[in-house]
Amino acid sequence: xxxxxxxxxxxPSGLLLGQLLHLKGIEAIVLERKTRDYVLARIxxxxxxxxxVDLMREAGVSxxxxxxxxxxxxxxxxxxxxxxxxxxxxxIGRNVIVYGQTEVTRDLYDARDAVGxxxxxEADGVSIHDADTDAPYVTYLKDSKEHRIDCDFVAGCDGFHxxxxxxxxxxxxxxxxxxxxxxxxxxxxETPPVHDELIYxxxxxxxxxxxxxNENLSRYYIQCDLSDKAEDWxxxxxxxxxKRRLPEDIAEKLVTGPSIEKSIAPLRSFxxxxxxxxxxxxxxxxxxxxxxxxxKGLNTAASDVQYLYHALTGFYLDKDSRGxxxxxxxxxxxxxKAERFSWATTNLLHRFPDQSEFDLKMQRAEIESLHFNETAxxxxxxxxxxxxx
Length: 389
Ligand code: FAS
Ligand code: PHB
Fold this sequence. Notes:
Layout: E1 5-8, H1 12-23, E2 28-31, H2 36-41, E3 47-48, H3 50-58, H4 63-68, E4 70-72, E5 74-79, E6 82-87, H5 88-92, E7 96-98, H6 101-114, E8 119-120, E9 124-129, E10 137-142, E11 145-150, E12 153-156, H7 164-167, E13 174-189, E14 199-202, E15 208-214, E16 217-224, H8 235-244, H9 248-253, E17 259-273, E18 276-277, E19 280-282, E20 288-289, H10 297-318, H11 322-349, H12 357-372, H13 374-385
Parallel strand pairs: 1-2, 1-12, 2-8, 5-14, 12-19
Antiparallel strand pairs: 3-7, 4-7, 5-6, 9-10, 10-11, 13-16, 13-17, 14-15, 15-16, 17-20, 18-19
The structure holds arabino-flavin-adenine dinucleotide and P-hydroxybenzoic acid (PHB).
Arabino-flavin-adenine dinucleotide binds next to helix 1 and helix 10.
């Protein structure tokens, strides 16, 4: 088999790249390790920056998103019984939308089916060969047979645990990592959201987040110990703990109900440089991870996709390789800014086991400056809605 671009990974990065390339007449085959249902069962991000919204529109997959999403002009932050809102629209004239990553992925799969683009599910043992030559190829196992796809380029969109990053030799790759000493226990419940905006809560008992998917589907998180297991937490225990971390008037309004999904995500900051090796280009979680506090994971994957999409169309349509040659440097410049915002908001809102009384005073002073200082709010707003591509 031969194609122009092999995309390893059928998550949002791979699917969005595949759809954008298709619209430019560039052929790509997506190799996905799991089944489509498995991919769609993962509950992940919920906030889309305008950059990603624009890309979804350019990819022609925004109809359902435009109909069903919530547009949020700001977000709320609480500390003990204080609650304040950061109004993005008033401060910088921009907003974000609330639309689950699951729905983004579903829309992209539907679009891929509609154009008959090839996605190979349950592609096992994917291996990338000769990426540092002009004739790379990819092999994989399917129905206990080995298959080979020759191509011009490979897009590694296979997430943190994928094979693409490991294909870049250790002598070339430099990795940066910070593992946080806690996780997020998240639940999905068919209950109305507790507030009209998201609430990021800093409390003496730890961080909490009140998010949503639609008017009767809410997403809540509480900071938990790394030793916790989702099955250790009954729904009642979760709701009681969440209430203790919210302002009283919010906790009183909280509508509880059975969880329809419950999982724990570890929190880490991670970047692997470079994001290109020969004809292999890394996109999204394959190259970088952020703690979800700043809602930057999916959105930084989107800026990688946009850069690589433009680089590949430049190569194929204009015989111009400059986009490919500058991809890694350009993508990493924005990645590190997203890493910083995610690291800063995680430090601002979580409780750390080794925090001293002085550290807690600094954290409180930082939150109060965000509460009362317009310049601090503008910095938060610009980063949260998304820095320019
Ligand atoms: P993904 O990991 O989504 O997709 C990679 C795909 O590649 C998967 O479908 C996988 O099955 C496939 N794959 C892996 N190895 C393969 C192989 N060897 N061969 C073929 N296919 C392979 N971000 C936010 O902004 N907000 C959040 O709240 C948030 N919550 C998260 C919770 C969890 C538990 C996790 C893990 C991440 C979360 N993220 C969040 C970040 C997340 O949304 C990612 O940024 C986003 O999924 C990135 O998309 P991809 O780069 O496509 O990677
Ligand atoms: C979510 O809705 O899942 C969500 C929203 C904002 C975040 C993290 C997760 O910062």
